[in-house]
Specification:
Blueprint (H helix, E strand, L loop, with lengths): L1 H4 L3 H17 L9 H18 L10 H8 L4 H8 L6 H22 L4 E6 L5 E7 L2 E8 L10 H25 L11
Antiparallel strand pairs: 1-2, 2-3
Helix pairs in contact: 3-4, 3-6, 3-7, 6-7
Length: 188
């Protein structure tokens, strides 16, 4: 212990700088997206896109192609969203569709009725909400439209899968607490 106290400040400072440098270099490791969840999300999203495709223009496309053509934003859509804090029509379409698709996957996996609400104003501020009864499972704030618009399928699937896992984990925790009063039905 005395030895440490007698170390020169320069040696200690060098060790602290080296430690800080290692922390900056290392990026947090993201776990990979669960393929089953990703496929379920793609299926739900395609079902929603098919419901909006009144004339069947995209009916012959494969699910991934359908998402690329109807859902994902182009570079022009993204630059339109970044210009003057305005939100492009593509973002206004993506937000509610993605939250509806996530709600459908959670509902399918849990057997509990899940609703979604998503709103975004012209400047990109808003929220996306997944809930069941009085219980809010997922609440995401949108600031300047972030993380929307999604221009790649990988980013959209990662965001959706993380929200689905978060919602399922919270739903499981809440089921245990309310087992005596009936599932998700507390009288108030």
């Amino acid at each position: 212990m005395e030895h440490m106290a007698n170390e020169s400040p320069a040696v200690l400072e060098g060790a602290l700088q080296e430690n800080a440098l290692l922390k900056r270099r290392s990026r947090p490791v993201r776990k990979s997206v669960d393929q089953e969840t990703a496929e379920a999300l793609v299926g739900r999203l395609c079902s929603l896109l098919d419901a909006e495709d009144f004339f069947g223009r995209y009916a012959a496309l494969r699910p991934r192609e359908k998402i690329a053509q109807q859902f994902l934003a182009s570079a022009a859509d993204q630059s339109q969203s970044e210009f003057n804090c305005a939100v492009s029509p593509k973002v206004r379409q993506q937000v509610p569709l993605l939250f509806q698709a996530m709600a459908g996957v959670i509902e399918e996996r849990s057997g509990t009725m899940i609703q979604s609400t998503a709103e975004i104003n012209g400047e990109g501020f808003g929220r996306g909400l997944l809930y069941s009864g009085r219980v809010i499972l997922v609440l995401k704030s949108l600031r300047a439209g972030f993380p929307f618009p999604f221009t790649s399928e990988e980013k959209m699937l990662r965001y959706g899968a993380e929200c689905i896992e978060e919602g399922l984990a919270f739903l499981d925790r809440y089921k245990e607490v309310t087992a005596m009063h009936g599932l998700l039905s507390l009288e108030g």
